[in-house]
Amino acid sequence: MKNFELEVSAPGRLCLFGEHQDYFGLSIIAAAINLRISIKGKKRKDKKFNISKPDIGEEDEFYLEKELPYLQERDYLRSVVNVLQREGIHLASGWDCLVRSSIPINSGSASSSALVVAWIKFLLEAQREYKHLAPEKIAEWGFLAEVAEFKEPGGKMDHYSSSLGGVLSIHFDENLRFKKLKNPLKEFVLADSLQKKDTTGMLGHIKSHVLHGVASINKNKRDFNLKTPLTPEVQQEIEKLPAEEKRLLHGTLLTRDLTKEGEKLFDSDEFDHARFGQLLSLQQAVLRDYLHITTPKITKEKIRHGKKLSILIKIDDECEEFYGFGHANLKLLNNKEMVFRKSSFICDRTVLIRCSKASNDLNKELINKIKDSKKRFLIIISDNDS
User: For the whole model, what pTM was predicted?
Assistant: First the structure.
């Protein structure tokens, strides 16, 4: 059989709204990006696979068998082969493959899912008769190979985003539904903070605490679930939970509601870019303050460089906006109190100085709600130049 060249690729993705919602059966909005994983291959006459991954300095090889053993944790190249063969896909020959990627690893851009999707596409196209399978089928097999095979806590968002591309709304309820949204978005700048994150450990922590919190509330409120509206009655039940469960469950419900508003925005006749930016800032604040999955180092560096920063305080339907300035002498070490000062005075509680508003300039209703110790509120610090 003659040799021939084959090349496929799959994109990474940005989660616009709904981070950590898919594995709870909730909705997300994600967008594929132009950073991709590509796999090139040359067909062999035997059943051996030689795989070169120069971006991470690795080589791999294996022969096609009925069930490949896993030689490392999350051995995705082998798990894809195992899943496809269990699904009845006949892989006839081996390949010499080159894997290249422009997606940063461990950065929240779905590099591992893009690898899995690209590898599935490569193996299917290599057999020709399978090359036109529906992308959602590829996404489902990707989930099986990456998540289910290794009993990981993740969901299907990354696999659907990478397989289908574009901007997607995906509803992960009992019957999964997805919709390609119109794309009014232009350029995004994806910055790699170089701060590695333990994605799998974080997923497991969030999932277990949120589900335990739901089970605790169900003892007093049997009809409660993650689709229940965030009413005052529900808020009261959440406040009874241990601190970690309370924080993570509240953050999950806030993210759910922001995702709903985001989808309405994409479905509207005229896309409101300003409102889109506000929703992204709110989502980031929830990730930072409730789910604790952001990079505080970046915000602190901006403050210490003396930048002019905008502040948004939000509690329920009350909002207040003002601006302030950072300073090189700010310590930013107090974990219990923070002060935004109209003056230039600096102490260990000071976050910004020379602010445009003092406490007596703020909305009185907002101040009263902040004084209510049972209520949580968001403080969003953003860069005017970003």
Answer: 0.75
